[in-house]
Design brief:
- The first copy, chain A, has 456 residues and is of the alpha/beta class.
- The first copy, chain A, has two domains: 12-221, Aldehyde Dehydrogenase, Chain A, domain 1 (3-Layer(aba) Sandwich); 235-394, Aldehyde Dehydrogenase, Chain A, domain 2.
- Chain A is built from 15 helices and 17 strands.
- Chain A has a seven-stranded parallel sheet with strand order 10-9-11-8-7-12-13, sandwiched between helices. In chain A, strands 16-2-1-17 form a four-stranded antiparallel sheet, with no helix packed on it. A four-stranded parallel sheet of chain A has the order 5-4-3-6, sandwiched between helices.
- The longest helix of chain A has 20 residues, at 49-68.
- Chain A is globular and about 80 Å long.
- The two termini of chain A are 44 Å apart.
- The mean pLDDT of chain A is 93.
- The interface between A and B is large, with 79 and 79 residues.
Chain lengths: 456, 456
């Protein structure tokens, strides 16, 4: 392979244009060829463990200095750090992508418009996908693997903190895929190259930013290319009057404590007033033991004050707390009068990510799930389940809080679009227009494109 | 009903905010209630034919003056003009929308993640849809009907030339829908209100502009809200070496002449060199008789020159011709050496709208259909079939040349998104994480949400 420190010296614009050219032939690479290429990527990564670890160690060493300087958190450096077992699991992830069903060439509908005039709606790749991500070097491999599986060309922009790790991984990917149309995966590194990418709306079909809310917002404000990303995860757990309080406590604990830094962790608990005294006294103890800071509205404060077995002083929640993604061991709590009030609170302050109701009453659960406007609405389950792997989508390219194209955890399906294939026999629209227009049949039937006749 | 000349004096911002509130309850209006409201709209429009015609006559009279002044074309005024039969067909269109299958509440997939932990992907409305359209007053009714059927609130901005017609139709719609959450349909009229709409990215989920390419481009460049629209229809017909030339001539004639002003009319013919002399001599005569102006590349010019039976002088096509949507009785023609050259020409100059190959060779057709990057790819059929009604989608809200969310003719499906519903039994993610993680089942099954247990 080429020296791990080298990448192609083309400009970002040339790279994007090459990706655009590659996308046209990539879309027609057979399932077998795409899967073979994925397997080769996994093998090449495993063969180059030492080289990857060496490059990563240099990135990590530099990042550690930034922790001392107060620039990075230790958690950030942890996400950056690779190990032999982590690299093995990256290779394993690539193999699992190879094993997934082909998302391409699926006939979604087949419809006879008239005799010998048949319309097929068939899944195809989107084209060129621009991605910007941070920290974890495994993101580069995951995004590349999902793009290849779904027949898309991809522009990869990783964080500067992972530059050496990303270069080695990128070169492993290129080395493993000589059979894939050259140019299908492009690494860009400079900050100003992101601007170039965002401006190339003729060449790039979709931008997927993964990073801070403000960065995603910046991308949305600075491109006319469609953006798939999530801006915030202000998720709620609502403990209903009909909740099983033991279950509610366990779920609210998991939703906050199991991994507080992620977007599907809960930020605000809403508690029905009828169960608030009893629920809060249980919940507070558990959160306190886990070191979770509580910010409560006035009713929460007063309930906790009057529950003699709780010694906490509850910090007063302000308006800002209801829209804050803490990403940390902090939770805000509000007591509500009714199911409707809980729904209204969520629709006003939530970020349309993931919302959960705890109740033993199925009708109340259904009302909540219908009325709350969010990508994922849960009944008696932790918000932390909102994840592509847990949802059974295989690997995920991200979670979307937008409502267009793909919503919630996005898997391979979100990287495809469709194309209409019409098979005719010389039909003209004039036949179906005017006063003696021939009517259409519009009958759906079971057939997949391409249709193969026995006589060839 | 209120006086047809009055509309609500709220600001555009208030209207959009009200639509946002309405959208939350609109999404839960039952199928029957939405269909009843659609039927009431059709009835109310029919009851108010005289009032609609009166308002329309005033719009048309003003527009006629602009024709004399050279501002509008007669075709523009024709599109603006309503008649009793046109109004009846508008009412009929609304009834046909009522009759279509409900696009909402459909369970797209059901997957067991684990015992008593079931995930349902269910179709839901998008939310608030902003639309900007021109000329035809029937567009206002069509867009409103499709939005209501799909549970979306809608902001309607029509052209000033149809202001009086649009006001009456809008008031008919409001009068007919007192049972629909108030605020679901909002009419805005001022040019500056469009800017307000484009800026309200927290409240508006999708913008659908219908109009000139430059207007759609303007919208894309001036909002961070997702845009569904089409910028150009530069469609091609490729006459292959294996084409049935009689069929090819008939299809190329229909694709250009049957309705040249629309986006799915052909703009460029590509002709394989082996059939060019024979095809062009037939085609030229037919186009000449229909008054179609021909712009040919050098090879087309020389072939036509040497074909003694053609008296035409062919205008030389310039580079600009290959990317021009004439929308008129003008066609450009290029002779190509091969199927691959035709594909390359289309992928370089086309607008990803609709492309058709004429050939009797199924393998060559398949190669073309796979390799051409367009929303609709046709084999032996006129490009003019690219249309929601002809495709059997029912009414269409527009044709998308983008690749994200909805592509080609967009029907009710394009106005929906989905929501993940997870039904659990108190599950925590901690159970499925770490070294002794419980594995997921991820088994798909047939069931629709909401699941009703017999015991309530």
């Amino acid at each position: 392979m080429t020296d791990s420190g080298e990448i192609d010296p083309q400009t970002a614009e040339e790279k994007v244009t090459d990706a655009q050219t590659a996308a046209l032939s990539l879309s027609n690479l057979s399932t077998a060829r795409r899967n073979e290429a994925l397997t080769a990527i996994a093998d090449t990564i495993e063969r180059n463990v030492d080289r990857i670890l060496e490059a990563n160690a240099a990135d990590v060493a530099d990042a550690e200095k930034q922790v001392d300087a107060g620039e990075y958190t230790q958690a950030f450096v942890d996400r950056l750090t690779l190990s032999t077992s982590k690299i093995e699991s990256i290779a394993e992830m690539v193999r699992s992508v190879a094993e997934q069903d082909d998302p391409l060439g699926e006939t979604l509908t087949a419809r006879e418009l008239d005799d010998d005039l048949n319309l097929y709606k068939v899944t195809v790749p989107i084209g060129v996908i621009g991605t910007v991500f941070e920290s974890r070097p495994d993101a580069l491999v995951q995004i590349s693997a999902l793009s290849l599986k779904s027949g898309n060309a991809v522009i990869l922009k990783g964080g500067s903190e992972a530059e050496r790790s990303n270069r080695v991984l990128y070169n492993c990917i290129l080395e493993a895929t000589p059979e894939v149309p050259s140019g299908w995966a492009q690494l860009i590194e400079a900050r100003e190259d992101v601007q170039t990418l965002l401006e190339m709306d003729d060449a790039v079909d979709l931008i997927m930013p993964r990073g801070s809310s403000s960065f995603v917002q910046y991308v949305q404000d600075n491109t006319s290319i469609p953006v798939l990303g999530h801006t915030e995860g202000v998720c709620h757990v609502y403990v209903d009057s009909e909740a099983d309080l033991e279950m509610a406590t366990a779920v609210a604990y998991d939703a906050k404590v199991q991994y507080p830094a992620v977007c599907n962790a809960v930020e605000t608990l809403l508690v029905h007033e009828s169960v608030a005294p009893s629920f809060l006294s249980q919940m507070m103890k558990q959160y306190r033991d886990a070191g979770v800071e509580i910010r409560g509205d006035e009713r929460t404060q007063s309930i906790v004050d009057t529950e003699s077995n709780i010694s906490e002083e509850i910090i007063a929640a302000t308006e800002a707390d209801w829209t804050t993604e803490y990403g940390d061991r902090i939770v805000s709590i509000a007591v509500v009068d009714s199911l409707t009030d809980a729904i209204d609170h969520i629709n006003m302050y939530g970020s349309k990510h993931t919302e959960s109701i705890l109740t033993q009453d199925d009708n109340r659960a259904e009302q909540f799930m219908r009325a709350v406007d969010a990508a994922s609405v849960f009944h008696n389950a932790s918000t932390r389940f909102a994840d592509g792997f847990r949802f059974g989508l295989g690997a995920e390219v991200g979670i979307s809080t937008g409502k267009i194209h793909a919503r919630g955890p996005v898997g391979l399906d979100g990287l495809t679009t469709y194309k209409y294939h019409l098979e005719g026999d010389g039909q003209q629209v004039a036949t179906y227009a005017g006063s003696d227009a021939k009517p259409f049949d519009h009958a759906e039937f079971d057939e997949t494109w391409p249709v193969r006749n026995d006589d060839g």
